[in-house]
Write a structure and sequence with these properties.
Layout (H helix, E strand, L loop, with lengths): L9 H53 L16 H6 L1 E3 L2 E3 L17 E3 L17 E3 L16
Antiparallel strand pairs: 1-2, 3-4
């Protein structure tokens, strides 16, 4: 004799699968937000790191550690100069290990502004690197454009 309580009925199985589907569909948006939040955190860190390197370069140039072009206002000519470094009293001083990959675009091509450019300019004059921004046209979780960070 078999007990009638030995297995699951079709209705119980369908209800269980439906509940699991609802829970899974609620978890997907949370996972997407988490991925976007991590990319935003990486973007903030990369921008902070590059801007700190630009500031260190300018501070060293202002102290006369090395010569720069007259119209550069002692800012680096490009990001690669921060990676390659400059000669200071016979030693190579580097300000960045590498140009970071933009987490929003997946490329090392960052938007640049020179001291002579307008603060909201999206085209680089080429004289020096005063500021760095992402070329992503996306919107952050807080509603701001990534390119304004």
């Amino acid at each position: 004799m078999r007990s009638r309580e030995a297995g699951l009925t079709l209705v119980e199985l369908i209800v269980t699968v439906a509940i699991l589907a609802i829970l899974a569909s609620a978890a997907v948006p949370i996972a997407r937000f988490q991925v976007k939040r991590e990319k935003e955190k990486m973007l903030r860190y990369d921008l902070w790191m590059m801007r700190a390197a630009i500031d260190k370069y300018k501070d060293a140039a202002d102290r006369g550690a090395f010569q720069t072009k007259v119209d550069s206002f002692n800012y680096p000519p490009d990001l690669q100069t921060l990676v390659d470094g400059v000669d200071v009293q016979g030693k190579k001083v580097k300000f960045l290990r590498r140009i970071p990959v933009d987490p929003m675009t997946g490329d090392t091509d960052w938007g640049l502004r020179s001291m002579q450019d307008d603060p909201d300019s999206t085209s680089w004059g080429g004289q020096n690197v005063f500021d760095v921004y992402t070329k992503s046209t996306g919107t952050a979780l807080d509603g701001t454009q990534y390119s304004t960070w």
